[in-house]
């Protein structure tokens, strides 16, 4: 299976291999039209990555002391 980049022309070639006729300029318009709504939908379901926490004191035991 050949390896492809992620340019619109490469995606056009991948789609053509799968018998789907699409122009690279159409792919560009789809990205412009739908990327903001996809990003908004993903942002709504995104979990928080990390919460802030503090540690007051730390004890380290070395050789029993």
Please give the largest β-sheet: none
Give the assembly state of these chains: single chain
Helix vs. strand class = mainly alpha
Mean pLDDT score: 84
SSE pattern, N- to C-terminal: HH
Radius of gyration: 24 Å
What's the helix count?
2
Helix proportion = 40-55%
Low-confidence segments, given as residue ranges, are none
Structure description:
The protein is mainly alpha-helical and 65 residues long. The protein is elongated, with a radius of gyration of 24 Å. The protein has helices spanning 8-17, 24-45. The chain has one domain (1-65). Helix 1 (8-17) crosses helix 2 (24-45). It contains two helices and no strands. The protein starts with 7 loop residues before the first helix and ends in a 20-residue tail after the last helix.
